[in-house]
Design a protein that fits this description.
By secondary structure, the chain is α/β, with parallel strands linked by helices. It is 42% helix and 16% strand.
Amino acid sequence: MAVYNWYPGHMAKARRAMTEDIKLIDIIVELIDARAPYSSRNPDIEKLGAGKERIIVLNKADLADPKINDSWTAFFKESGARVVALNSRDRQGFRAVLSVIDDAARKKRERDLKRGIKNRPVRLMVCGIPNVGKSTFINS
C-alpha cells in the first residue's frame, strides 16, 4: 500500500523557516482568503505562534459576502485574535490593518520601555497558505 503525503515541499520548507524565525518576531500577521476562511488557514501557524500577538487578515474581502465576513470576524475575535477584513489589491482596509498592528505593538513597546529598551523595532511575520495574497499585501 502506498502512502501519500499531501504536504507540499515548499510548505514544509516554509514551516522549517518559520520554526527558526518565530522566536525573533513580535506579531504574526496571518492572511486567509475571506471566501474560504476556515479552509484557507494552516493549523501549524497557530501552533507555532502560540504566545505571540496574532492578527488575522481576511484578504479578498471584496469577493466575499460582507455579512459572512462579519460572522467570521466575530468568530476569530472570540478565539482571541485581532481581525481585519481587507482588499489588498485596491488597498481597501489598509488603515484598519495599520491601526490593529499599532494596537498590537503598543503592549510590546510598553514592555520594552519598562525594561529600559528604547526604539527597538517591532518585528512582524506575514504568513499564510499559497494564493491568499501575501505578496500583494506586502507590496501594497
